[in-house]
Design a protein that fits this description.
6 domains; D-amino Acid Aminotransferase, Chain A, domain 1; 5-stranded mixed sheet; binds 2-(butylsulfanyl)adenosine; OB fold (Dihydrolipoamide Acetyltransferase, E2P); 26 strands
């Protein structure tokens, strides 16, 4: 064999391996190698290809990085039109659909439906000739779409060629390209940093990313796909059910949702709808409903189409989380670090059992970008527990009296100047701890459950304490008297005593909690833990330099600067000193975690514990060097079981992992200290 032949064989083997691992990862969701091992294979292939460019083929896994920018998208006429779906919004709509299907087919028994999540992205068509990806298009108007072949090729979960020997000579696959919730947040966070365009929702982000003339940009975007159907196919017989076709697609290397189910009758469709609705929040991507499709292909053919939608399928949509209302006013709130956040006061609207009367407007740039005025009719979106957001303005409805929104020059609370650095989107009150709003927020943060955990010291109480000048900073909390507390609104002697007790027990803390509680800009719990682990004591932090801080895990120049500035400030030093004098203390951390008694042991906590919270149990275990994991595997050493433990206990039993109840756990901890 010549060198070229040897190289060629090596390349072939590497490509085969990479494609198989890709398949296991994306389609089967069952990877057998680590990311690092995968990267090593990819790197090796890239090296050989760089040395032998003549061996590069278009379907090599390395050819997903995007091509030269286009001037415009070419048009693609769909051989089979890309239809849309009729919508159902209620149980009755679904029952009526099922009845229509039965009537048309003259069938009296229950119809079999294939149920799928309805993904909130954009439909694409991808064509394979003799197994090779040759063209991809957007849906467009259903008849003609845009040629996005280069862009689709950059999506790692789209196979560049089909798997297996029995693949069709011609295949048009249809699916939905979308962006995961995480991918969307990350993309927007990066865009915000760079001052670039922010996307309204994952669907817009996916559409904007896919319709890029420069496919190298598409390659950098976290796009994903689920395939749900077929357009044209030649050269191989297809199964006679939709579910069978999805299985075929999987076999050929396409990613198909693992939440597809085959059910019988409308009642089971509705049960599927509710099951998916329950899962919705926890899914890594957005869905806007479910789709029911008649499973039998023969029945589908009999049913046919009306205008632009098939008679054999329907989308059952989730109730909209978007509503329209009016911006009645805009107020500016002052946060813990002085950040001024504009908040829209809305004409109250009722959505799914909650009244929405406020929405965050983030910052002035965002207001300008969305062109929001007071008096505007706006679309407001509520997703899960997050603060409602204004999605867009309905410009046609803007009254002539609409008012532009201006950033105030002075802080609405303390009247200090408002500053806005040129490269920062956020405006800040320059009053620092002189500003009572910032003081209140700082104290609230200090008392929070994840910080010093002062039980019962809620926001309202802190507002009163600051407003009545009883406290100015966190250290003042520990000097409060029973009388002072008992005289506050909605307080009596008993609740006042409870607060004093809570303050007393908060004094025994951990270094990480204390650092987090100080409220240093951009120092969250994870950074506080890293700092505590690194220094094991508070003292060295006072003299830590920006350079030194940057050697710690996850700390970059900006955070390092915030930490160093915080500890060099006289006022902060004084407050910390007073806090320590008031008696706040923590157990000394042993520096080397592998010397700790539970080093190397992994625990899983499940169910409700009676004597301590899960957070407290986790903290205790971690302080002894153990790791606390979220799920049970054969790497778990112990499972601690509280009341109402669920599937984790079953899994532990199945895997033979030792289980402890709460009493055993407490004894175990006492022994381990
Ligand atoms: S089937 C004729 N299945 O919804 C069948 N569509 O409103 C047409 N979509 O354009 C499509 N998830 O973009 C189908 N599991 C799914 C889907 C799905 C999302 C989108 C697709 C389509 C639109 C129709």
């Amino acid at each position: 064999m010549t060198t070229i032949e040897i190289r060629s064989k090596e390349i072939e083997k590497l490509r085969h391996n990479i494609n198989e691992h890709n398949y296991r990862y994306y389609v089967l969701d069952d990877p057998i190698i680590t990311d690092a091992e995968y990267d090593a294979l990819y790197k090796k292939l890239k090296e050989i290809e760089t040395a032998h460019p003549e061996l590069v083929t278009v379907d090599s896994p390395t050819q997903r990085v995007g091509a030269k920018p286009l001037k415009a998208f070419a048009e693609v006429k769909h051989v089979v039109p890309m239809l849309s779906l009729d919508n159902a919004f209620s149980d009755e709509d679904v029952e009526a659909f099922d009845q229509r299907v039965k009537d048309r087919l003259k069938i009296h028994h229950e119809i079999e439906y294939a149920c799928e999540p309805k993904l909130d992205g954009l439909a694409v068509s991808i064509i394979y000739k003799n197994g090779m990806l040759v063209k991809a298009a957007t849906r467009g108007d259903g008849e003609t779409g845009e040629d996005i072949t280069e862009n689709i090729r950059t999506i790692a979960m789209v196979p560049l060629h089909l798997r297996g020997d029995d693949c069709p000579t011609l295949l048009e696959v249809r699916g939905e390209v979308y962006m995961s919730k995480k991918g969307f947040m990350k993309l927007n966070a990066e865009a915000e940093k760079k001052g670039e365009k922010i996307f309204v929702n994952p669907r817009n982000a996916a559409a904007g990313s896919l319709r890029q003339l420069d496919s190298r940009i598409t390659a950098s975007r976290p796009l994903e796909i689920f395939c749900y159907g077929i357009g044209v196919v030649e050269g191989t017989p297809l199964p006679n059910t939709h579910a069978g076709i999805l299985e075929c697609l999987k076999k050929w290397g396409f990613r198909v949702s693992s939440d597809t189910r085959v059910v019988k009758g409308a009642a089971d469709c509705l049960a599927y709808y509710h099951a998916i609705e329950k899962k919705r929040e926890g899914l890594s991507f957005e869905i806007d409903g479910v789709v029911y499709k008649v499973n039998s292909i023969a029945e589908q053919s009999k049913l046919g189409f009306v205008s632009r939608a098939p008679r054999w399928a329907i989308a059952h949509k989730f109730p909209s989380e978007e509503v329209t209302t009016i911006v009645e006013d805009v107020e500016f709130q002052v946060g813990r670090t002085g950040a001024i956040t504009p908040v829209a006061r809305l004409k109250p609207v009722f959505v799914h059992g909650v009244t929405i009367s406020n929405a965050t407007l983030h910052n002035l740039d965002e207001i300008r970008r969305k062109d929001i005025h007071i008096g505007d009719t706006v679309v407001v979106r509520r997703a899960g527990d997050v603060i409602p957001e204004v999605v867009m303005v309905i410009k046609d409805k803007r009254p002539s009296s609409a008012k532009k929104i201006h950033l105030p020059h002075k802080c609405p609370v303390c009247h200090s100047e408002i500053e806005q650095l040129e490269d920062e989107a956020i405006a800040r009150c320059s009053g620092g701890l002189f500003c009572s709003a910032q003081r209140k927020e700082a104290i609230k943060h200090f008392a929070a459950r994840r910080a010093m955990d002062i039980e019962g010291l809620g926001d309202k109480l802190i507002d009163q304490l600051v407003d009545q000048a009883l406290i100015e900073n966190p250290a003042d909390l520990y000097a409060l008297t029973l009388d002072q507390l008992a005289n506050l609104d909605r307080m009596g002697e008993k609740s006042a005593q409870n607060i004093l007790d809570a303050l007393e027990s908060s004094k025994k803390s951990t270094l990480a909690r204390f650092i987090f509680a100080l409220g240093i800009r951009e120092v969250g719990e994870a950074t506080a833990k890293n700092l505590a682990k690194h220094y094991a004591d508070l003292k060295p932090l006072f003299s830590a330099t920006v350079e030194e801080l940057q050697t710690i895990q996850d700390i970059g120049p900006v955070v390092a600067h915030h930490i160093a500035t915080f500890f060099s400030e006289k006022h902060n030093q004084k407050v910390i000193d007073e806090l320590l004098k008031a008696g706040i203390h923590w157990e000394k951390i042993q520096k080397s975690s592998n010397e700790l008694p539970l080093a190397g042991k992994t625990f899983v906590l499940t169910g409700t514990l009676k004597t301590l919270t899960r957070d407290a149990a986790k903290e205790k275990l971690e302080s002894l060097g153990a790791k606390v994991a979220g799920s049970v595997s054969n790497k778990t050493h112990y499972v601690v079981v509280g009341e109402d433990a669920g599937s984790k206990l079953d899994k532990a039993k199945a895997l033979g992992v030792p289980v402890m109840d709460e009493d055993e756990f407490i004894r175990f901890l006492q022994k381990s200290v």
